Amino acid sequence: MSDSLLARHKAVLPDWLSLYYQEPIEIVSGSGRHVTDADGNTYLDFFAGILTNAIGYDVDEISDAIRRQVDTGVLHTSTLYLIRQQVELAERIAELSGLREPKVFFTNSGTEANETALMLATQKRRSNQVLALRNSYHGRAFATLAVTGNRGWSATSLSPVKVSYVHGGYRYRSPFSEFSDADYIAACVDDLREVIETTTAGDVACMIAEPIQGVGGFATPPDGLLGAFAEVLDEYGILLISDEVQTGWGRTGEHFWGIQAHGVTPDAMTFAKGLGNGLAIGGVVAEASLMDDIGANSISTFGGNPISTGGAHAALEYLLAHDLQGNAAKLGSQLLQGLRAHDSALIGDVRGKGLMIGVELVAPGGKEPVPEAAGRVMELAKQRGLLIGKGGLHGNVLRLAPPMTLTESEAAEALRVLTDAISQAEREL
């Protein structure tokens, strides 16, 4: 069955729409943190639809909220009409944002959310100049590709914005990697100031940054870096956008928003993925003075629709009621300690926060990326019943981001499977 579906996939879908595994799987059912494929194999899911199924699978509270809306017969109305679920979710997100006088705009994805934030900032500042971090990823649309600092995801050099890239997000391969946290931050701040002075006209619209670089391999800068950047940005009137598509909703464990580790309140935050627990939703929360500064008509046909916002609100309340941020902190620490204690010459770096962990694989004795090892570990983990992700600038980073409802026994199981797979891959190389 899967072979037939794969052939049909290849016949009608783009070649660049990549699939995991030598024998790709079709996931047909799920419960808790486990999914089952079309051949009846069950797996512990440690990638959660790319950090999207944050609560897990078959959660009654979320499913019931969706069913209640479906039962009304209204799946869609558009933002031309009042949508109660949209207003209620926006109120909750505004309350949790920490921003002054926040307003919320809903989209269908993180890409669309980041496009909106860039539009707001460039309109506000009347400038198309943008600062971004090297090794970043912000989406697959025109402007978001332009501000993506990762060659593997940059499909075109054409751009509606003029981008300058700065150091800081990816410490492991940075020229400042051996510096102390304080010296690393100081060096990156110096670089930021020089980039502004030498590669821009000065009137830059914004900086967009991920507190932890997701597609970039969960690259994790020192706490306080973006706060130090913000001091420089403020000198020039440059806005700060925090891309919380992967770091939001408590996934990092220590904070509800990733930017909070940096001691700064941004002008806007973008979000998506985990909020909907699988429903298509994204958005921007920004200061009212920024959000309202659009001098043209605009709507969102599907953004903020009653099914997505109703289900997302239920997911958010579930997350808060069950302290999933605390669970992420506790079990993330358990996983990080176990991975860092594992003796393997393949492991160059173990990084991340909460249930957002990257394991960078390198040639023994050095830092040369070994993407084939990452691919092999993924296959071996799958054979043992564990699904994980992969990313990084060189495709050599294992990405672990299970549903935040993960249990201690499941974390222990995943750690055992993953370390066994890494050890076997090391023996085979």
UniProtKB/TrEMBL annotation:
Keyword set includes Transferase: yes
EC number, as in UniProt: 2.6.1.44
Pfam families: Aminotran_3
Keywords: Aminotransferase, Pyridoxal phosphate, Transferase
Highest rank taxon of the organism: Bacteria
InterPro entries (alphabetical): Aminotrans_3 (IPR005814), PyrdxlP-dep_Trfase (IPR015424), PyrdxlP-dep_Trfase_major (IPR015421), PyrdxlP-dep_Trfase_small (IPR015422)
Enzyme class, broadest EC rank: transferase
Family affiliation: Belongs to the class-III pyridoxal-phosphate-dependent aminotransferase family.
Quaternary structure, from the entry: Homotetramer.
Protein's name in the database: alanine--glyoxylate transaminase
Lineage: Bacteria, Bacillati, Actinomycetota, Actinomycetes, Pseudonocardiales
